[in-house]
Design a protein that fits this description.
CATH class: Mainly Alpha
Strand order of the largest sheet: 1-2
Order of helices and strands: HEEHHHHHHHHHHHHH
Shape: globular
Largest sheet: 2 strands, antiparallel
Number of domains: 1
Radius of gyration: 24 Å
Distance between the termini: 48 Å
Length: about 290
């Protein structure tokens, strides 16, 4: 009995040990290394060894005009992309939910299909669509006498990236919200209809409250993903024009792997982590259910 108790106590740890080893090796250890690196001045290709500089990297980042330009570019992308994605996914989910089951299957697959395309393929496709000389979008707009500088204008460049991101990522939140809609008991709507509630009132006072946890999840995940945007801007615009679409992750990449300033790049990464954590907490506080 003693041996069996010992086995029962340790067997769970044995089963999760492979995951814990990989989790520690590929997530926790790099995080700790990056945190330590952010307090060092280390030029990766320089013969000068790394030296401790305290918070100098953080101070330099917060005083850098390039950092703040990348930060505000990231915020602009997030402010545009997250509300449009959540509202678009909610609208699509509600529309699909009202269809017959067979049609739901088709439209659910159609919305989700772009999300399985890699960011490099999607970026190259939309870069061709946005091309000012022979792109498909301008070719269509020329029929009404309009030509849009999608990628060469500071006004349009970020909006172009947001448009591509909506096409590429809308399917995931749509499927999640659609699953949430299927979990709402029909009795709520039947009782509301008997009491004379209109479809609009049913949506505002039944659908939205019942979807609050799922909307919170979708919103938080989209905020985290938007602050980590990189592939779209890097492939479509390269950060231009005039660095108007160079986001924080691209700035980190260029600082660490082009300029080889690993310590400074790690400091910017932790500042980005702090931003994501702050806005995530704000989102939880704003959307938490009241007692």
């Amino acid at each position: 009995m003693s041996a069996r108790r010992t086995w029962n106590r340790w067997s769970g740890w044995l089963f999760v040990m492979p995951y814990l080893v990989l989790f520690m090796a590929f997530l926790v250890a790099p995080l700790i290394f990056g945190l330590v690196l952010s307090f060092l001045r280390w030029e990766m290709v320089s013969p000068v060894p790394a030296r401790f500089v305290g918070v100098a990297n953080y101070v330099e980042a917060l005083e850098s005009a390039y950092f703040w330009k990348a930060f505000w570019a990231t915020c602009r992308f997030t402010v545009m992309a997250v509300p449009l994605t959540v509202l678009g996914a909610l609208t699509a989910a509600v529309a699909i939910h009202g269809m017959r089951p067979r049609r739901q299957t088709f439209y659910r697959a159609a919305y989700f299909l772009p999300t399985i395309v890699s960011v490099s393929v999607a970026g190259l496709l939309w870069r061709w669509l946005f091309n000012g000389e022979f792109g498909l979008l301008n070719a269509l707009l020329k029929h009404v006498g309009v030509t849009v500088p999608w990628l060469t204008s500071e006004f349009w460049a970020m909006k172009s990236v947001v448009l591509m991101t909506l096409w590429w990522t809308l399917g995931g939140p749509t499927v999640i919200l659609l699953a949430g809609l299927h979990q709402i008991p029909r009795q709520y709507y039947e009782a509301a209809a008997i009491d004379g509630a209109s479809p609009r009132q049913q949506f505002l006072f039944i659908t939205i409250p019942q979807l609050r946890p799922i909307l919170l999840f979708v919103s938080v995940m989209n905020i985290i993903g938007s602050f980590q945007v990189f592939g779209q801007t890097f492939i479509i615009t390269g950060g231009g024009p005039e660095l108007s679409t160079r986001v924080l992750v691209q700035y980190i990449y260029e600082t660490a792997f082009r300029d080889f300033r690993m310590g400074y790049g790690a400091a910017i990464s932790w500042l980005l982590f702090a931003c994501i954590g702050f806005f995530t907490v704000v989102q939880f506080l704003a959307m938490r259910e009241k007692d």
